[in-house]
Specification:
Oligomer: heterodimer
Number of helices of chain A: 13
Strand content of chain A: under 5%
Number of helices of chain B: 19
Largest sheet of chain A: none
Largest interface: A-B, 23 and 34 residues
Shape of chain A: globular
Helix content of chain B: 25-40%
Distance between the termini of chain A: 17 Å
Strand order of the largest sheet of chain B: 6-7-8-3-9-10
Structural class of chain A: mainly alpha
Radius of gyration of chain A: 21 Å
Helix content of chain A: over 70%
Structural class of chain B: alpha/beta
Strand content of chain B: 15-25%
Largest sheet of chain B: 6 strands, mixed
Chain lengths: 351, 548
C-alpha cells in the first residue's frame, strides 16, 4: 500500500481544502467575520519572518519530537498514547537536573545543557518502560496504562512545582527560572527559534534512515507489521523489540519536554504542555507514521496553533475552533486510510 | 450393538451438491438420519462431512439437492431457520462469548427482555433435564473445555432442538470426558431425539452409533448399520477403496467399485477444466503439449502407482545409508495449555529424501513440525537439527508474510532476528529478483506488497525464501493449501528439486494423496504417536486412523 509521492501530494492538498472549508463553515456558524479571522490566522502563522520563526517553527519543535515518538511506537505496533506524560516527565526531570547542575560551578554550560536534555530523554524512556513492562509481564493494554501514566505525570508535575521544585520565593506554583547560561542557544538572533529545531530535524532524518537501513529498525517494522510472522519466519524476539521501541519512543517524547523547558518556557509549571503529546498523535497519523512526513505535519500543526492564537487575539475567535479543525483532519485521514485499504482489498478480491 | 427399533427419518439429505470455485466439495451426497438414533458421519479430512452438515444447518446453500425434515421438503437458508425446525449444531470451534456467563450465552439470540434469574433457572432446568452438569452463573472463560462444550449443547437444547449435530466433539476432550459425552449422546437419542456425530474416530462411531454414513470426496460411499460393519470395512470406505463385498449391508452399500470409478472420472474432468481456465488466466505462453502434459499428471493424483519418487526412494535404500539431518528420539511435546501433543516420537529425515507425515488434524503433527523447525521446544527427548531449517507453515498470512510489506522486505525477514548493523538492500534486492525468477513468482515488481500476489505466488515466495541459501533441512506444512492446480504442481516440483539437491525435506499434508505423491518414506501419526508405515494408501490410512 505504498503511495507514490504524487498521490501523497494530491491527498494533502485535498485535506487542506477540506480543512479550510470546515474552518470557514465553523466561523460563519459561530457568527465571526471569516475574512478577518482567516487573515489573522495567516498573519499569525506565516505573515511575517517573526511569525514563521518565533511562532510556527517554535511550536513545531515539540510537536515534531513527540510526533516522532508516536510514529516510532505505532510503527512497532505499540499504541503509545502516553507521549504527553512522557513529555511532562522529561520536562520535570530536565528542571530538576537544571536545579542540580545550575549550582555546580566549573561545569561548562554546554555540558550542563546537554545533561538537562539527556536526563529528560532518560526520564521519558523510563516512564514509558513502566507501560512496556506492564504489557510484557501482565498483558496490560498500553492504551490504558499510558493514559493513566499521563494523569500520574500531570499530578506529579503539579506536586513538584508546589513542593521540591518550587521557586525559592514560594509565590507561584512554578520552578525557579532557568539561568540564562543554561538556555538552549538561539538558532537565529532576534527570534525565539532555538537549536531544538535542528535537533528535531536531525532526529527525524536519523529515525527515517534507521528504520529503512538498519537491521534493528527493520525488526521494529516487522514486529509492527505482523508480530507472529516476525517471530516465526524472522525468528525475531518480539518482546525485546517491543520493549526497546517503547522505551525509545518514550525517550523522544521526554526529549521534547526537556527541549521545550530549556528552549522556550525556561520553567516548569502546571499545564506546562498545551497538549503537545496528544496533538503529536495527530501529527504522526497525518504523516502516515513516516519520520520525514512528521516534520511536515508538525510544521502544519505548529502553524495552525500559532494562527489560532493570533485569531483569538485579533479576531476574537476562540481557539477551540482550530481544535475542531484539527480533530476533523484526523478523522478525515483515518477514514481515508480505511477507504483506501478497503478499496485495495476489493480490487485484489476481484482478480 | 443391537439395532434399535427403527424410527422414521427425521432428516434426509438427497443429492446434495456444492461447489467452491472449481472444487467439488459435495457431489450428490446423501444422508438419512432416523429419529431415536445416533448417526455417525465418517470421512477423511476434506471428505465433505462438515460441509454437508453446514448445508443442513443453513450455513451453506447447496447448489443442488433436497433437504427433508420430518418428511417435508425444507429450504433452510440460515441457522435460525434450522433452529426453528429443531436442528441444532455444536461446532468444532466454540461460538461462546468468554466474558459472559453460561446463562447469558444461552440467552444470546433469544428475544424479549433478558431476566438474569429466569435465564439461569432455564439453563439449570435444561441442564438437569438433559443430565449435564453446568453452573449457569459461571463465566465461560473460567470453564474447562468440556464444560464449554456442555454449554454449547445446552445452548442448542434450550431452543428445543430435536436433532443435534456435533462436529468432532471429542477432538478437544480428555478420554474420560469423551466417554461421558458419548454416553450422553446415547441417552439423548434414546429419549426420541437424534444425533449426528461427525468424527474420524472409527471406534467412537462403532461404540455409540446406530447408523454410520461414510463420505469420500464429497460422495456418500457407504451407509450401514453400525452392527453390520467393522473397523476395517469403515477404514476402507473412508479411504475410498473397495468395500468388502462379503459384508452384509443393511441399507445400501453403494456399488463401491462403480462409484470409485465414476468418482475419479468426475474429478479428472472437473480438474482438467480448471487447469485450462488457470492456464488462460495466467496469460502465459503455453503450448498444447504442455497443457496435455499437465492434465496427464493430474490424472495420476489419488491413484497410487510407482512414480519417480518411489523409484528414487528404492534406489536410495539400496545404495547407501544417507546422512541423517533431522532426527528425534523419544520426544514428547506439550502445547501452551500443557496438553501432551506428541508422545515418545522417534523419527529421522536423511539428506536427499522427502519424508511425509500422514495424520488427521490435531494429531500432534503441527507441534512435531515446529520442534524440527526450531519454533517450539520439546518437553522431553533429544532432537537433532541443523542451526538453519527452512520452514513453510500452513497459515502463510499469519506466520510467514508481512502482507503490507514489499517482496524484498519479506525476503529480508528471514534471519532478521540474528542480523546486526546495516541491511544490505542491494544484495537483498538481487536475491529477491533471482528468487522471483527461479520460483516463477508472478508479480509486477519486487516492490509490490505481498498482499497483491495470488495465494500460489505468495506460497512460491515463502518457499523460495526458505530455500534461499540451500538450507540442509526444510519443514513444510500443507504446502498446497488454498492453491490452484498449477501452483500446486509448481510447489511440489520445488520440493522435489530441493530434495534432489540434497536437502532433508519433511512434509505434512492433510491430503493423504499429497503425502503419498511427495514422500519417499511415510510416517503416520495418530493421537501424538508416530509410526513408520509403508507407502500403500490403505496401510497409511489405517495407521493414521488408529486402526492398524
Amino acid at each position: 500500500m505504498r503511495m507514490g509521492v504524487w498521490s501523497a501530494v494530491v491527498r494533502s492538498a485535498v485535506l487542506a481544502v477540506v480543512a479550510l472549508v470546515v474552518l470557514i463553515v465553523l466561523l460563519l456558524l459561530t457568527g465571526h467575520d471569516a475574512a478577518r479571522a482567516l487573515t489573522a490566522l495567516v498573519q499569525g502563522s506565516f505573515g511575517s519572518w517573526y511569525a514563521i520563526t518565533s511562532s510556527t517553527l517554535v511550536r513545531a519543535v515539540p510537536l515534531a519530537l513527540a510526533g516522532l515518538a508516536v510514529a516510532l511506537a505505532f510503527r512497532a505496533g505499540i499504541l503509545n498514547v502516553g507521549a504527553e506524560g512522557q513529555l511532562l516527565m522529561g520536562a520535570a526531570t530536565g528542571a530538576a537536573t537544571a536545579a542540580v547542575v545550575g549550582g555546580m560551578s566549573g561545569l561548562p554550560a554546554g555540558v550542563a545543557i546537554l545533561l538537562v536534555l539527556v536526563m529528560g530523554a532518560i526520564a521519558g524512556g523510563a516512564w514509558a518502560a513502566i507501560a512496556a513492562l506492564l504489557r510484557q509481564r501482565f498483558g496490560v493494554l498500553e492504551v490504558i496504562s499510558t493514559i493513566m501514566l499521563n494523569f500520574l505525570a500531570q499530578y506529579l508535575v503539579g506536586w513538584l512545582v508546589r513542593g521540591p521544585l518550587q521557586e525559592p520565593t514560594r509565590v507561584n506554583p512554578q520552578s525557579a527560572a532557568l539561568p540564562e547560561a543554561l538556555h538552549l542557544p538561539l538558532l537565529l538572533s532576534g527570534t525565539r527559534l532555538h537549536w531544538g529545531f535542528v535537533l528535531a530535524l536531525a532526529l527525524a532524518i536519523l529515525a527515517w534512515w534507521w528504520l529503512r537501513a538498519t537491521a534493528s529498525g527493520f525488526r521494529l517494522r516487522a514486529v509492527g507489521a505482523n508480530a507472529t510472522a516476525a517471530a516465526s519466519a524472522g525468528q525475531i524476539r518480539v518482546g525485546r523489540t517491543v520493549v526497546g521501541a517503547f522505551v525509545l519512543s518514550g525517550a523522544l517524547a521526554g526529549l521534547a519536554g526537556s527541549v521545550e523547558f530549556s528552549g522556550v518556557t525556561f520553567a516548569l509549571y502546571d499545564n506546562f504542555s498545551p497538549g503537545y503529546g496528544f496533538t503529536a498523535i495527530a501529527v504522526a497519523l497525518l504523516a502516515r507514521l513516516h519520520p520525514l512526513g512528521v516534520l511536515a505535519t508538525a510544521l502544519m500543526f505548529g502553524a495552525l496553533e500559532a494562527g489560532a492564537n493570533a485569531m483569538q487575539r485579533d479576531a476574537g475567535v476562540p481557539n477551540v475552533v482550530v481544535s475542531v479543525v484539527e480533530a476533523t483532519l484526523i478523522l478525515l485521514v483515518v477514514a481515508a486510510d480505511r477507504w483506501q485499504s478497503r478499496s485495495a482489498a476489493r480490487s485484489e478480491a476481484g482478480t | 450393538m443391537t439395532l434399535r427399533p427403527a424410527g422414521d427419518a427425521i432428516l434426509s439429505l438427497e443429492g446434495i451438491t456444492r461447489r467452491f470455485g472449481s472444487v467439488l466439495a459435495l457431489d450428490d451426497a446423501s444422508l438419512r438420519v432416523r429419529s431415536g438414533t445416533v448417526h455417525a458421519m465418517l470421512g477423511e479430512n476434506g471428505a465433505g462431512k462438515s460441509t454437508l452438515m453446514r448445508v443442513a444447518f443453513g450455513l451453506l446453500r447447496a447448489d443442488a439437492g433436497t433437504v427433508r425434515f420430518r418428511g417435508s421438503v425444507q429450504r433452510i437458508a440460515s441457522p435460525s431457520d434450522a433452529l426453528a425446525l429443531g436442528i441444532g449444531m455444536v461446532h468444532q470451534h466454540f461460538t461462546l462469548v468468554p466474558a459472559m456467563t453460561v446463562a447469558e450465552n444461552v440467552a444470546l439470540g433469544g428475544r424479549g427482555r433478558f431476566e438474569p434469574r429466569a435465564a439461569a433457572a432455564r439453563v439449570r432446568n435444561v441442564a438437569t433435564h438433559a443430565g449435564l452438569v453446568l453452573d449457569p452463573d459461571a463465566l465461560v472463560s473460567s470453564l474447562s473445555v468440556g464444560a464449554q462444550q456442555r454449554c454449547e449443547i445446552v445452548k442448542a437444547l434450550a431452543r428445543d432442538v430435536q436433532l443435534l449435530i456435533l462436529d468432532e466433539p471429542t477432538a478437544v476432550l480428555a478420554p474420560a470426558e469423551s466417554t461421558e459425552l458419548l454416553q450422553w449422546m446415547r441417552r439423548f437419542a434414546d429419549a426420541g431425539h437424534a444425533v449426528v456425530l461427525i468424527t474420524h474416530k472409527l471406534r467412537d462411531a462403532l461404540a455409540i452409533a446406530d447408523d454410520i454414513t461414510v463420505l469420500h470426496r464429497g460422495r456418500t460411499v457407504l451407509t450401514t448399520a453400525a452392527s453390520a460393519t467393522n473397523e476395517s470395512a469403515l477404514a476402507s470406505a473412508m479411504l475410498g477403496a473397495h468395500v468388502d463385498e462379503k459384508l452384509p449391508a443393511t441399507y445400501s452399500v453403494h456399488s463401491a467399485a462403480n462409484d470409485a470409478e465414476n468418482d475419479t472420472t468426475h474429478f479428472v474432468t472437473a480438474r482438467s477444466a480448471a487447469t485450462r481456465t488457470d492456464a488462460r488466466e495466467h496469460d502465459h505462453e503455453r503450448d498444447q503439449e504442455h497443457d496435455q502434459d499437465q492434465n496427464a499428471r493430474r490424472r495420476d493424483f489419488g491413484t497410487p502407482r510407482i512414480t519417480e519418487s518411489q523409484a528414487h526412494a528404492r534406489a536410495g535404500t539400496v545404495t547407501a545409508e544417507r546422512h541423517v539431518v533431522l532426527a528425534m528420539h523419544d520426544v514428547s511435546v506439550r502445547d501452551a495449555q500443557g496438553i501432551e501433543r506428541v508422545r515418545d516420537a522417534t523419527m529421522s529425515v536423511a539428506a536427499g529424501e522427502i519424508v511425509g507425515i500422514a495424520a488427521v488434524e490435531g494429531s500432534g503433527q503441527s507441534e512435531l513440525l515446529r520442534v524440527f523447525a526450531g519454533r517450539m521446544n520439546a518437553s522431553r527427548g533429544t532432537v537433532t537439527r541443523p542451526a538453519v531449517v527452512g520452514f513453510v507453515p500452513e497459515d502463510r498470512h499469519r506466520d510467514a508474510l508481512l502482507l503490507e510489506q514489499s517482496l524484498v522486505e519479506n525476503v529480508a525477514l528471514r534471519g532478521a532476528g540474528a542480523r546486526r548493523g546495516l541491511l544490505a538492500w542491494p544484495s537483498l534486492r538481487a536475491s529477491t529478483i533471482s528468487l522471483v525468477q527461479r520460483f516463477d513468482v508472478r508479480t509486477n515488481s519486487i516492490d509490490s506488497a505481498a498482499r497483491t500476489l495470488s495465494g500460489g505466488n505468495q506460497q512460491k515466495l515463502v518457499l523460495g525464501r526458505e530455500l534461499d541459501g540451500a538450507p540442509s533441512a526444510l519443514v513444510v506444512e500443507n504446502p498446497s493449501r488454498g492453491l490452484d492446480f498449477l501452483a500446486t504442481a509448481a510447489v511440489r516440483d520445488a520440493l522435489r528439486a530441493a530434495r534432489d539437491a540434497g536437502a532433508a525435506v519433511l512434509v505434512y499434508s492433510s491430503d493423504l494423496d499429497e503425502v503419498l505423491e511427495l514422500a519417499d518414506r511415510v510416517y503416520a501419526m495418530h493421537q501424538g504417536a508416530l509410526i513408520e508405515t509403508g507407502r500403500e494408501r490403505e496401510q497409511v490410512g489405517r495407521a493414521m486412523l488408529g486402526s492398524a
